[in-house]
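User:
Care to share a sequence and structure tokens?

Assistant:
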Amino acid sequence: MLDVRSGTGLHGQARPYALHHPRALGAEPLGGGQWRFGLWAPEAREVQLDVGSARHGMVRGTDGIWTLTRAADADSPYAFVVDGKATPDPLARAQTGRDVLGPSRLVDPRRHAWTSDWAGRPWEEAVIYELHIGTFTSEGTFAAARARLPELAELGITALEVMPVPHGPGARGWGYDGALLAAPHPAYGTPEEMKRFVEAAQSYGIMVLLDVVMNHFSPEGSDLHRIAPGFFDPEEKSPWGSAIDFSKPVVRQFFIDLCMGWITEYRLDGIRFDAVQEIKDPHSDPEIMVELTQAIRARDFGRPIHLVNEDNRNNPTLIRDGHCTAQWNDDLHHSLHTLLTGEAKDYLAQYADDPVAKVMRVLAQGFAYEGEGAPPTEGGLPVYGLPWTAFVVHNQNHDQVGNRPGGDRLITLVEDERAAEVAHALLLTLPFVPMLWMGEEEGERGSFHYFCDVKEDLAEAIRKGRKEQFGRMFDDPDGFPDPNDAATMDKSRPFTASGSEHARHWRELTRRLLALRHERIVPLLKSGRAAPAEVQRRGEFALSATWPFRDGFIVTHLNLGGLPDDPPSVTEPNDLALGDIARDPYAITVIVSRP
């Protein structure tokens, strides 16, 4: 690992600030016990800094940023006092306790002792495992999560996608309603404990990507509307309230510093950007996602940084132009889920008309909908011959499971469990980058729900909103458990039958599939795409696909509910076979060319 400014290695002569990103706002250590404090409060009459049991007046700049340089001890509590009312640092690295509106804690990231080097991994090697720190273990902490890392590495997991961890209201939540976006929630642990979790994962060869939300703040626990109302655009709305005004340079810098801080100070391997379509910046050039990713790409972190965006418009221009590495692709999930479960309401209705054809389109092009319009919005653009690894695919994730009334996983929705096994095998042997949802590796049948810990008026609005947004998709719109009840989070922990024969069977299947992927498929991915995919329909529910690479090819024969009219002639030894393509309605055969 290199010092991003000096090129010095961590061992021996590394500078203490090798993993530090100086920020324009917040509390910045300057050395010698000095700190620079900054807060954007353009409409405030007076701003003071409360630190060291005393208050000190801050100086307003013409840009509305109040600043002060002051001596203080690391780990001391501090707060800004805006027009007589204390407020936490919006870019705090930590709070002094669980109160999201209480004092912040001075964290000097230069003091953390990293004990190892980490050069990262190429994206072609990624097998992503999405997890929620609070439910991944019974303790729900970074420290407890570290204990599960060896078994993930042994299975073949090479990347974690950690659901958002910022400090938000209450003691529990999904993380998408953060109030202090740069501070890990104390329910999970301290910044130091999160860094130890990241380093432990990397010691097992596992990359760590963090899910970051840039499209809204929590409606509870954030004081930004009071201290900086100009942070938000009164003319724009997001699904979660006021949209952020990215036309203002200070707002743009806030989020650039946020993301650069996460990558630099936590030694992350990348970021997953949540709901990019709701990051509204119609009047800027370049728009914020381009400026942000350019800033990240311009810095040498001593390791590859992987940027993944979620965008339901099926708009791959950020990948085409080299800003992002890959994009979440829900189209495979929607097509397979509709085919295997028969569910076809709301947005799934657009995949219900011949879902096998939609699966074929995904396998051939990357998206089921491109150019002609991508549900549920009017977007959709050609994929520009992108590498197959530009698409992150999944059979389930936190949204697709947690937004159901029963929190049901795919394995509980199919009539024949072999259908789930075949979908699992397909996912892990595709040339796309696969993502597993925690517990999926061992065929978890337990539920996962949406949960929160907010005041009752907001809780009631959430209950009503979830029924309206997701209830129409299901026959039991009143079946959602109370998200504000602590028991709902407790019911969402996976690994409910880890010692069972069922779990052992699924873990062995996952291990075998990932061994094939790493040994045979990844080398082809690294060699590069050589030509378009060839996808052939062999019956109402059967197909064959071939992906050519410079060093070989992958051939997959697939039955998704019925036998082929014209069974393929398999002349080469197969690398994987679940069921018999000629006899079983759910079956898959995979052949990876040998050099």
Remarks:
- The two ends are 34 Å apart (CA to CA).
